[in-house]
Amino acid sequence: MKLEFLHQNITRLLSERNAFWAVIGFLALSNIILGVCILSKSARTILVPPHVTKTMWVEGGEVSKEYMEEMGLHMSKLLLDVSPTSFPYNHEILLKYATPEAHGVLKKQLIKDGEQYTKLQLSTHFKPSQITANTQTLEVEVKGTLTSYVAGKQVRDSQETLILKFIHRGSGILLESVSGGNPHAS
After folding, report:
1. CATH of the domain at 111
2. 127 falls within a domain
3. Rounded-to-10 torsion of CA 130, 135, 138, 143
4. Which of 47, 118, 170, 178 is the most exposed place for a label (fewest CB within 10 A)?
5. What residues make up the domain containing 140?
6. In this structure, is residue 7 part of a structural domain?
7. What is the mean pLDDT of residues 90-95?
8. Strand order in the sheet with 153-169
């Protein structure tokens, strides 16, 4: 009787042990699968500008069209909505968004533009009317009216198109080049 009782206990303990090993194996496998899923998923960075009107995001190598439009609008204002007293600050802010490779070229052009603003006592006000972002090429085209003032007097309204080329770096985009939008071209 004792022998039968011991045999039943040993059988029950072995089946419990096997059940525990099955549970441990299942948990280990599920942890490995979760780890692989977490490591293979790219992080989505939620960007919050000062004035939020649209949802913007950067995920892996992709950037939302809305984020590019907002960056294009912001950059165009920094470049074209300036006066002799505001251009140094605007240009300093703009250069913070430039790629290291483009920083020198942009800074040289901005210094040249700043000298023109000071020499002519030129102020410009830019009113964007159309923003087109291409998420594949990371280019933003900003069209609008540029009003120029010399010594406080309005001298010209012109339609300008500014093309901003960005490059994806880390959790955002950086300015690579600027073309168009020359406020002192005659």
Report:
1. 3.10.450.230
2. yes
3. -10
4. 170
5. 60-180
6. no
7. 93
8. 122-134, 139-150, 153-169, 172-180
